[in-house]
Design goal:
This protein starts with 9 loop residues before the first helix and ends in an 8-residue tail after the last helix. About 45% of the residues lie in helices and about 10% in strands. The chain is globular. The chain is of the alpha+beta class. It has helices at about 10-15, 35-40, 45-50, 55-60, 130-145, 180-190, 195-210, 220-240, 290-310, 315-350, 360-375, 380-390, 395-400, 405-420, 425-440, 445-460, 465-475, 490-495, and strands at about 20, 30-35, 70-75, 75-80, 80-85, 90-100, 105-110, 150-160, 165-175, 240-245, 265. A hairpin with a 3-residue loop joins β8 (about 150-160) and β9 (about 165-175). The longest helix has about 35 residues, at about 315-350. The strands form four sheets. Strands 2-8-9-7-6 form a five-stranded antiparallel beta sheet, sandwiched between helices. It has a two-stranded antiparallel sheet with strand order 1-3.
Length: about 500
């Protein structure tokens, strides 16, 4: 059976010299572990045909579908602040692009498909656990309404990969609006290749910001657009307690999607200094640092664009370009704060505001977070139980606090702010609670349950827990008895020593 995928590969066609052509490595026993049938249909693919041995062969890398042009993309990156001039896809291959049913161009790529010219001594393979983690966290982010890459499939390979231990191998098939990164621009900037930088920037604009095409200030406009997307994305991360874990510049997507789910995790007890990643020994990518790191990464992106923003190479033109780019970077905190404040207002159940309310509402949100931090309240449940309080049921919220004195004072301020919007306080509270439950999830992928599901899948070839969790996280805003265990925090002793790993 031949499986048709209607590829239209602009990256391969329009960007020669930006990649290395490479074939995925053959594996002994391809077997589907996961197929995202909904996403397959969205991409215009035949889900039934993909759910087959032939589909498994494609998703494991044993069969390259007609029209695919496998390639490893070149990019550089700042990793934990230090610059590496050549990274690139060391274990990933872009198969090609499709136009989905909504007219959007989407990349389809393999991850864990073997060595490439950019592998830097690695084996290019991946293990079942990290690949299924990417499935779970990506689908959770999608269900939470946060821009993200998504897994189309995961396939076991029937071979062993060696990390700290020997582990069963797997390949992930990832779908993204693109795999263009800050690091893609850094690769050519580091080599002083201005013409390829211009080609790359024009390609990025055509792909993500077509309204800028042909405009004289399009490169500055691109910087502004990427900054806006990142401000929105990071505000969404911060509003659900997501910690990316490794915000290197090669992991910042210019499309504004969350990409590269390695040592990622979700907060439980609220603490801005939380770090789960085993490799982030100095806390560079701690939860509370994520807005600062996004700005730092954008500054690196701006540096690559300076030769394009400048009208010519004269000193005045370069100085003007530096000033214009610096203004965008300096504006990022305000962009982020506006996006964050909007999210916090939604989570607090506030609909009406004026510029005069900004400082007051931001202080209200900050003081709420301080309350959560001071008593190590579970971030997700704290927000969710505030929705119960909105309709008059304060008991679940109070039950989270050992000392309610600070909570009482804060609730008084919050209710006074809410009453300014409600003519009928009782009806207003009920409507507010409904709105709050739409933006404050009841459950997230609890870290201990993620590990439990991945351990069963990797160690016992048992996908029962994985599939059950996948079902639960697909509906994170609705409280149902069957999914109650997924809403429970881990024991404090477990959370305090929890570590995540890259899986490379």
């Amino acid at each position: 059976m031949s499986i048709g995928i209607p590829f239209d590969n602009t990256y391969a066609r329009e960007l020669p010299g930006f990649y290395a052509r490479c074939q995925p490595a053959a594996v002994p026993a391809p077997r589907l572990l996961f197929l995202n049938r909904e996403l397959a249909v969205e991409l215009g693919l035949d889900a039934a045909a993909l759910d087959s041995p032939e589909g498994a062969a494609i998703f494991a890398g044993n069969a390259v579908p007609e029209g695919a042009e496998p390639l490893a993309q070149a990019y550089a990156g700042h990793q934990f602040g230090g610059f590496s001039p050549q990274l690139g896809d060391g274990r990933a291959l872009l198969l090609g692009e499709v136009i989905d049913r909504h007219g959007r161009r989407r990349d389809i790529a393999l991850k864990g498909s073997g060595r490439t010219p950019f592998s830097r001594g690695g084996d290019g393979k991946a293990a079942i656990g990290p690949m299924l983690r990417e499935v779970l966290i990506g689908e959770a982010m999608f269900a939470l309404g946060i821009p993200t890459t998504r897994a189309l499939a995961a396939a076991a390979t029937g071979e062993v990969v060696y990390r700290e231990d020997s582990l069963p191998g797997a390949v992930l098939t990832r779908v993204a609006s693109s795999h263009l990164r800050v690091g893609t621009f850094e690769f050519f900037s580091a080599r002083g290749d201005i013409e390829r930088l211009r080609t790359l920037a024009d390609y990025t604009i055509a792909r993500h910001d077509a309204e800028l095409a042909g405009m004289p200030d399009r490169y500055l406009g691109l910087l502004r657009q990427v900054a806006q997307r990142q401000a929105s994305l990071i505000a969404q991360w911060m509003s659900v307690g997501f910690i990316h874990g490794v915000m290197n510049t090669d992991n910042m997507s210019l499309s504004g999607e969350t990409i590269d789910y390695g040592p990622c995790a979700f907060l439980e007890a609220y603490d801005p200094q939380t770090v789960f990643s085993s490799i982030d020994t100095r806390g560079r990518y701690a939860f509370g640092n994520q807005p600062l790191i996004a700005r730092w990464n954008l500054a690196r992106f701006a540096e690559t664009l300076l030769p394009l923003i400048a009208e010519d190479e004269s000193e005045p033109a370069v100085a003007r370009a530096v000033a214009q780019a610096t203004e965008v970077i300096d504006d990022f905190p305000a962009l982020y704060q506006a996006a964050f404040l909007k999210r916090q207002r939604d989570k607090l159940g506030l609909q009406q505001s004026s510029p005069d309310d900004d400082d007051h509402d931001l202080a209200l949100a900050d003081d709420w977070l301080t309350l959560l931090s001071g008593q190590e309240i579970d971030f997700t449940l704290g927000w969710r139980r505030l929705a119960d309080a909105a309709e008059g049921n304060e008991a679940p919220l109070r039950g989270l606090f050992a000392d309610t004195a600070g909570l009482d004072a804060w609730l008084q301020r919050w209710r006074a702010r809410c009453e300014r919007e409600d003519q009928d306080a009782a009806a207003g509270g009920s409507r507010r609670a409904v709105r709050m439950r739409r933006v404050n999830p009841w459950l997230i992928p609890r870290n201990h349950l993620v590990e439990e599901a991945l351990a069963a899948a990797s160690g016992s070839d048992d996908l029962t827990l994985f599939n059950a969790m996948l079902k639960a996280i697909a509906d994170p805003y609705r409280e149902t008895p069957e999914h109650a265990r997924y809403a429970e925090p881990a024991p404090q002793a477990l959370t305090s020593c929890y570590k995540t790993f890259c899986g490379t």
